[in-house]
Amino acid sequence: xxxxxxxxxxxxxxxxxxxxxxxxxxxxxxxxxxxxxxxxxxxxxxxxxxxxxxxxxxxxxxxxxxxxxxxxxxxxxxxxxxxxxxxxxxxxxxxxxxxxxxxxxxxxxxxxxxxxxxxxxxxxxxxxxxxxxxxxxxxxxxxxxxxxxxxxxxxxxxxxxxxxxxxxxxxxxxxxxxxxxxxxxxxxxxxxxxxxxxxxxxxxxxxxxxxxxxxxxxxxxxxxxxxxxxxxxxxxxxxxxxxxxxxxxxxxxxxxxxxxxxxxxxxxxxxxx
Length: 273
What we know:
10 helices
């Protein structure tokens, strides 16, 4: 996911801008603004140290602003918040140019910096709202089987839906190989051998003579290989991207299979019980 579409990142940047604004205001509190023709406004610094202000305290405050400015440096570019200054060839970054308020011929006034920071905060908030609205749907996804969502969740937020499905299917297949000991079988043969209705390695619990149990045994013999072929194989061999809805439905099918596998017993264990 691109940074400017990530609401978490946008809010972190907004926090950095708020920190910059606070530090800059504290720096200004140690100064007085120049005003009027007597101070040659536009030539003299926009602010001067307040009478009695400690030079060391001013230096420490300036260091805090500089650090905060570094943390918030992405905000002007993200929000396109720049200031046009007459006679200056390019728009001015109000965060990077904060220090000019205390230098001769300042590019910016204190109010320019504070107003720009407020504008950035508002724009970042609006961008975060928009980014949240555009996030792929996650309703119900986190509640899927942990094997499935655990494999898909790092890819899902970035919109890599096909890869999320493929990763989840491969994770489930790997766990099935470990459980059955059939590490050398390809996925298709693995699912067929594990759930074959004749001599399955994994068996639905209960009396096979019971109609519901028998239905689950026979159904898994078809469903498990079918899910592998229609979901895992297609996600692996066809690089066509899936929509969020298409991927969500495939993950749900995998999640259901994963839960049923959890409920199955090893056929050898059930025979001996």
